Amino acid sequence: MLHTRKEIQQLKFNYQQTLANQLVTAVLILDHKLTICYVNPAAEALLIKSLNKLYGCSYDLIFANTSITRPRLELLLNTGQELTDSEIEIEPRVKIIDLPQR
Q1: This prediction's pTM
Q2: 24-95 fold
Q3: pLDDT digits over 26-54, tens only?
Q4: Structural domain boundaries of the chain?
């Protein structure tokens, strides 16, 4: 059962995503540009928006006027650390509109 490095990384990602979907804690994953690339079901419930609506949105759509700033996130990204903060009040800055289905 030999796997390439890419396959191992994909397996790891699949396990992490499966685990995140089982949590009652809201999990948001941002890419290197600080755009939302994943939210688990708990985050969808908290934000009242699905991953389909949030995917590709900038972090500041959710975290405007909070202690989670761009410099803080960039530092975490550069050091590989994680962020846990249970004292944040979320007030979306921009309303995400639902587009009609084609």
Answers
A1: 0.64
A2: Beta-Lactamase (3.30.450)
A3: 888 888 899 998 888 888 888 889 888 89
A4: 24-95
